[in-house]
C-alpha cells in the first residue's frame, strides 16, 4: 500500500487546491474497469450507470490538474502534482479530506476511517471487523456481525459508507437508521432484546399497574411468558398493561443503574 502525508502547515493550502465531487476531495478521476468511462468516484458512477464500479479493479486515473491519463498512482507522471494526501494502492482510494484519518486493514480488505490498527482500532477475528481498542475486552462477539444487510434500510453494512454501530445485544445497524428507529421502539429489530436503558420507563409502568389492579375474578390469573432479554420462560401474574420477567429483573439487579453500553463506531471509505 502506498501512502503519503504532507505537513500540517501546508494542509490548508493543499486542500484548497483540491478538486473532486460531493463524495470525495481529490485531484483525479478514475476509469471504470467495466465501461471504461471516467468518473470522480464510484458513487458518481453508480448514480448514472446500470452497473457498479469495482474500485479495486481500477487501473487508470486522469489527473484533473493537467488532464493526463495514466496508470493509477499518487503523483501525476505528467505535472508531478500530488493527486491526494491519502492513497491506497489496494483499494484504489484517493482522499484529500484533512478532517479525518484513514487506514487500510488487510483483514477487512478495505480502507476504514481511523488512525490505524494498534492506535485507535483493532481487528476482531470473530466479528471480522475493525473495532475501537477501548472495547477490545468488553465487546460482544457475533461472527461476521457486519457482513449482512442493515435490518432497517437493507443496505450491505460491511462496505457501507454510512456509519455502522453495534447495539447492546451485539447486532449491527446503520447509526442514522438506529436514530430514527429508536424514536418508536426500544428493542433490537433482529432479536427483540432491549437496546436502551428502560429502567425509568418500566418503573413508571410498575406504578401504573399497581394503581390499576385487575378485577377480583382475575386476581389469580397467571401467564406464561418468554423473555426476549434473558431468554427464559416463566409464569407471572397477568395484567393487561404489561407482564414483567422476574428472572430478568434479578439479573439486572447485579448491574449498574446506568447500564447503557457504549456504541462502537466504524466507517468504510
TrEMBL record:
One of its GO terms (cellular component) is nucleus. Residues 14-81 form the CHY-type domain. Residues 41-92, 150-192 form the RING-type domain. Gene3D superfamilies: 2.20.28.10, Zinc/RING finger domain, C3HC4 (zinc finger). Residues 83-149 form the CTCHY-type domain. Transmembrane segments: none annotated. It comes from the Eukaryota. This is DNA, SC005. The lineage of its organism: Eukaryota, Fungi, Dikarya, Ascomycota, Pezizomycotina.
Amino acid at each position: 500500500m502506498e501512502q503519503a502525508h504532507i505537513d500540517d502547515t501546508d494542509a490548508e493550502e493543499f486542500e484548497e487546491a483540491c478538486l473532486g465531487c460531493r463524495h470525495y476531495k481529490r485531484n483525479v478521476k478514475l476509469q471504470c474497469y467495466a465501461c471504461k468511462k471516467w468518473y470522480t468516484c464510484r458513487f458518481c458512477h453508480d448514480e448514472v450507470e446500470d452497473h457498479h464500479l469495482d474500485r479495486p479493479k481500477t487501473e487508470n486515473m486522469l489527473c484533473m490538474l493537467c488532464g493526463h491519463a495514466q496508470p493509477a498512482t499518487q503523483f501525476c507522471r505528467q505535472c508531478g502534482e500530488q493527486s491526494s494526501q491519502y492513497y491506497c494502492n489496494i483499494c484504489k482510494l484517493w482522499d484529500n479530506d484533512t478532517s479525518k484519518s484513514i487506514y487500510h486493514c488487510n483483514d477487512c480488505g478495505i480502507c476504514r476511517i481511523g488512525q490505524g490498527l494498534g492506535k485507535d482500532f483493532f481487528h476482531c477475528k470473530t466479528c471480522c471487523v475493525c473495532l475501537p481498542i477501548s472495547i477490545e475486552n468488553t465487546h460482544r462477539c457475533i461472527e461476521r456481525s457486519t457482513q449482512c444487510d442493515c435490518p432497517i434500510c437493507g443496505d450491505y453494512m460491511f462496505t457501507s459508507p454510512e456509519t455502522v454501530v453495534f447495539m447492546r445485544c451485539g447486532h449491527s445497524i446503520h447509526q442514522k437508521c438506529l436514530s430514527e428507529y429508536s424514536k418508536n421502539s426500544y428493542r433490537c429489530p433482529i432479536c427483540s432484546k432491549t437496546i436502551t436503558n428502560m429502567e425509568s420507563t418500566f418503573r413508571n409502568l410498575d406504578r401504573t399497574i399497581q394503581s390499576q389492579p385487575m378485577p377480583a375474578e382475575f386476581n389469580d390469573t397467571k401467564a406464561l411468558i418468554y423473555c426476549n432479554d434473558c431468554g427464559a420462560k416463566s409464569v407471572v401474574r397477568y395484567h393487561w398493561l404489561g407482564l414483567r420477567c422476574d428472572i430478568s429483573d434479578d439479573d439486572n439487579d447485579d448491574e449498574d443503574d446506568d447500564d447503557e453500553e457504549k456504541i462502537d463506531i466504524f466507517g468504510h471509505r
